[in-house]
Protein 1
Amino acid sequence: MGLKKTDQEKFLYNQLENLNLRTKSLVASAESKIKDCSEATASSLMTAILTLSNQSADCYTEWLTVAPDEKIARVQNEHNAIAMSCDNILVSLNAIAGDLRKSTPTTPIEAERPERLRKVDFRPFEKTNPKSWFEQLEVVFKSMVINGEDLRFGALLKLMDESTGTLLSNITRTKPSDPYSKARELLIREFTISKYDRLKAYILDSTPAPDERLTHFLARTDFLIEDVLIDDLRKFCVLRHAPPAVRLQLAGLDFDNKDVGELIKEADTL
């Protein structure tokens, strides 16, 4: 027989508390060593923190399915605080770690030994923010010293669902020398929405989740306007009042490539 809901909640909560305690301890240890940290130590700490952080995130997500309402806000705040502390220390460690392979000499036997793909403990591909997802994945690759294009591409394939993986089938068939770079470029291009749609999502569609802190809401949505200019905002504010057919036609490349005057003139001719 499976656990009752209350027993399952207690089990998952205790597991989450344990993971949080271990993560906080490891982050504190990393923070105390950061000034005199070697590249090798920084790389090891990154791997350990990422592993614990991902385990904690998985456990937290599972716990939410059985959590009582009165606990959620407090645990969510603690979880978010730990996640942010992990993000901060990982950035610092990544700056120290560098590319260990370039600085570590290898023996002839090691040089001849083929690289093997290790398990990459990372969340599945995020279609909503592919650029940020790849940036974080590459921090993981760097910490695990996974540098080869083929190894990175192999690891990437394991993080794709079936529908997304089919987009990479041509790369799999043609076997280019830089499969990971080509896949990265393709996926970012495929799933990055236009400036118009990003502005719409940021200004009109995005709202904080229940009990979500504004700092977390900002971090979650800030990427939508990372390259937006005042001219883009002016174009959006005017174009959103155009008829739907005109708006649909101009909200793509025309929106990105034309200034506000050119775009509005074209809108008036349609």
Protein 2
Amino acid sequence: MRGWHLETPEEEEVLSVLNTVSNTVVADVQELPPAVQTLHWVAPQTYLGNRVSSYGGFLTYQSKSFGIPSEGMILVARGPDIELTGQDMNLIHVAPHAPLPDRLYQGRVQLLEGNWRHAGTNRPVSREELMMVLADLVALKIRALYFTQSQRLSLGEYTGDSCERCAPGFYRDRNRPYLGSCVPCECNGLAYECEDWTGKCLNCQYNTAGDRCERCKEGYYSNAGDRTCSLCPCPFSVPSNSFAVGCRNVFGSVECFCKPGYAGVRCESCAPGYYGNPLTPGGRCRPCNCNGNSNDCDPSTGVCRNALEPGDTSTDGQCRECDNCV
């Protein structure tokens, strides 16, 4: 919703703030004079220009008038909910239902001529007229103020040329009417975005993972909800020397689940078929390289232990032709 702003009919801008996390524009209107009965959210230039390709699509938006209904939030006289301006024409749409006080309102209108009227005359709009306006759209306004005693106004949750995509921090719940509604991502406060159609969280923070950032990521342990996921000390709590896919605290001691090639209570040694020293800084375990003759080598040096030729300790796999017989 970057660039959207709130205006009076006199085109005086009312201070509003963009919440970059939820991609929602919010304005405090408690201090406005009671005489102000009309306010509009005005689209930025990126929504204007040639929008012929949006014909037949849906303009969907969500807004809310925050307040306390019991303190007398009264519906202001009905008027246009959406205004499109272009080619010296001003087209309006009046929604069939009014919003409720302090409730999220979802507006949805298809960009077809039957849903629009000419402002002032209420004359029906022809297909040609709607196409002309969309070909050079110079203004798009969405009604913001619906109730007296409103404290705050908000607009957000949808993005895109026809507002068909959910904004960052929201995903489309397909169990809701039409094409679904945008609802907040459920990431336990550990991610700012999720997949549009599945709600699967993206880029979980604080070393967490999972569809809802509900667990520690591989190689970490503790409590994801408390944001305390720490690197497994297997054998050490440094990235270069931690060789566990996971671990857990058992009665005050850490139990490690080692990656392939590592063994020991803390993954401090190499498993059979591997060699190296995980306890040295930057050390790791490598597979034995015995050219298929054996999978057994010295766990420290990697020198192969050839079961067929016990005396052969070469690790380079290079054999030289004999020049005489024994």
Protein 3
Amino acid sequence: MTLLPTTLRSVFIGVDVATGSTRAGLFNEDGKLLGSASSPIQIWKDGDCVEINEKDSRDMEASGWDDGFWEEIGLGDLVDGHHAKIGRSVAFPGHALGSGLTLNDAMELGLMAGTPVGTALIDAHASVVGIMESVPASDSESIAMVPEYWLTGGGQSSTGSLLDHIIENHVASPHLANRAASRRISIFDLLNETLELMKQDEGSPFIAALTNDIHILPDFHGNRSLIADPKSKGMISGLTLGTSEKQLALLYLATVQGIAYGTHHIVEHCNANGHKKFKTGIFFIRPLMILGGHAC
């Protein structure tokens, strides 16, 4: 007879559906990563982008997959075998699946068998749920995912990973990380302090002007919006032989600016093409709320 562990512990499972892969992490109450796994996502691009008019999830739950859509975008093979490749069931986000964790999975995770497991949300949709309470009532009608409204996705690829890449691959990074740890602050806090001191020392009118001679195109992992080119590459213009912490701070700032300009490009394009509010004409994207890793 197989018994469950007698000592139970609280753990948290996080799932991220990103550009090139889906990743899952298991964390304890202190935020320590206990284990992780990932699975690649196939990327297709043939000519112009395909705009997807997503059906309401509640309708999909009742009717299943839209076979005509898969055929239209050249993925008709996903319909074969009664959708054997992608699964036959479509569930509304948050709905309980099956009978919860199986006995084997529960033992592996240190949880109880039958622990509820709900249908997940992808990162962009989950972010909307996270800000629902932060949006003024007057703006609530324009929130994505509200019935009868559109959700416009304008993603940028691996921006958090890009910041880590720029910082961690610089020769000054280890020393900077040690200094930050000794003060119990993040390396980003220390970089921001460095930039503030540089602004004062150089008499710069504002921090953004420090990177007048260095620019970064942040497409190190392809471009999702608006170019939609997974083969796009990043670029750094204005490099010198400098290896100081100040030089790293400038690279960090230029990366943040490159990401911000990418966001501006997306918003500018949406506004220029007249986002239509259901039944009430045109509206423009106004407030921006930052969520996820960049909000920390």
